[in-house]
Amino acid sequence: MQAVDVVIVGAGPSGSAAATTLARAGRNVLVVDRATFPRDKCCGDGLTTGALRELESLGFSPQGLTTWQPVDDVVVRSPSGREVVFPLPRGRGTYAAVVQREELDAALVDVARRAGATVADGHAFTTVDVEAERVVIDVDGIGAVQARYAIAADGMWSPLRKAVGAIEPGYLGEWHAFRQYFTGVTGRGGRELAVWFEADLLPGYAWSFPLPGGRANVGFGIQRGGKVATQEMKELWPDLLKREFVREFLGPDAEPEQSHKAWPIPARIESAQLVAGGGRILLVGDAAAATDPMTGEGIGQALLTGRLAAEASVPLATSSKPTPPCRGSSSAR
Ligand SMILES: Cc1cc2nc3c(=O)[nH]c(=O)nc-3n(C[C@H](O)[C@H](O)[C@H](O)COP(=O)(O)OP(=O)(O)OC[C@H]3O[C@@H](n4cnc5c(N)ncnc54)[C@H](O)[C@@H]3O)c2cc1C
User: Hey, how many other C-beta atoms are within 10 angstroms of the C-beta on 14?
Assistant: First the structure.
């Protein structure tokens, strides 16, 4: 059986941040992800100042990323139609940026690999056994892996969290959000980042986040339990795109690249379970419902919670000694 100090399930921003931090501290770390990178993640692709500072602390550089778009001005529109432009500080670094998750997450996996972590993408976690001194997980195509600790960085539906029973039946997240890429964006949407508050979307908002080459990530998110039911979002989406200020912002030639995608956003870290399996499993990022409850922003929070979980486990996760395989297992399936 393969033995490591820490095994991480999920190689999104939270998993990569945890892996990089642990590997730099000299820990033997394995990250498994069921997807093969680069892979898409349904997201607005927006990086806040907090996310950018976390990325910098990991040693991440945007150099060479073709979808990286720094942002200078943030446009906020109120339900009455009043628009305010907030200029971000100039000449003192980057305070907001947009980058396609397909590219960002693959680059973060590379950062983790360069730090010394082993990343096995294309391999799904399936089952877990938690014992007093170790965790044994089973991974498709790899087999059993034992570790002192496991980090669940496997997103909103966290199969690792589910496998240890740390779930609330029927939980669907606090937010639900749509995203669609547009091409042929000739209006302000090609360079400005907009957040639109519309009366019928409250509590929620729509956005247009610029990408290089006349492209934009356009979407909207609403909080569950508000005026709009999540089932109504599909009908609302074409209606929202037809609104005059949206069409003007994107320009007359803007066209969707493919159909929209939707995904839930968990935002309840204050009440979420952060540790499971008798302290052997730490939950981070969306698996810990760590997104901002006001905005649904979660990349910075994923990076931060991944780093914090890694820092907490560094002194405890010393080299593991292989022990005989155990019997019985909890399945994520
Ligand atoms: C429409 C939408 C728009 C958003 N816009 C923004 C935004 O603009 N800015 C922002 O900061 N946040 C945004 N968010 C939130 C953000 O996308 C998430 O908070 C963030 O991706 C969480 O990162 P993570 O690493 O925790 O999880 P994820 O990025 O979801 O990564 C989880 C990983 O776990 C892997 N995994 C799952 N199951 C298994 C398994 N069985 N075995 C192995 N691996 C597994 C998955 O393949 C995936 O790679 C948005 C969310 C949505 C839905």
Answer: 34
